[in-house]
Amino acid sequence: MTNTIEEILTLFGHRKQMTSGLTPREQVKAILTSTPPPLTERILVLTDELYLEETTERKVVISDGILWQGDITTLQVDAIVNAANSQLLGCFHPFHKCIDNAIHSAAGPRLSTIILSGQRQGILCHYLQCGYHV
Fold first, then answer.
1. Tens digits of per-residue pLDDT, 16-25?
2. 20 in a domain, yes or no?
3. pTM of the entire structure?
4. Could you give the number of structural domains in the chain?
5. CB 2 within 8 A of CB 10
6. Which among 48, 57, 53 is positioned nearest to 130, based on CA atoms?
7. What are the pLDDT digits (tens) for 61-83?
């Protein structure tokens, strides 16, 4: 996982200096949160690898309908609701505690990429999306 994180940071280059004082993984999160799509295919592949490793460590299984208070990105469920802004792209403020940011941080950059792609094509029905790594 460390090599993947370091390669992602290397690909972002100068932006790494903007995140001094953070752990390497926190640097990646901050950069991905504040960098709008599109991202290079190599960055998308590396973040997929990183997020796949992390998702196996964070899942909580819930059965039956219940009210949950906590981090919804840790749950193994079929769907979640995002109280997002109208653009659905996340808030772009690293470590902001909003639900939109939590979902985009957990899903990885492919979620923002596909939403932005649909908006460029004039598609307005991006309210139901693949969760990617959530």
1. 566 678 899 8
2. yes
3. 0.64
4. 1
5. no
6. 48
7. 656 666 667 777 777 766 776 66
